[in-house]
Amino acid sequence: MRKTKSVGKIKRGEAFGLEGDLFLLVLGALVLSIVLVIICLPHLSVLPALCVAGTPLFGVGLFLSLFYIGKPPGYFWDKMMSYMSDNQLKKSKHVRKIKDKFLG
Question: H or E segment at 14?
Answer without folding.
Answer: strand 14-15
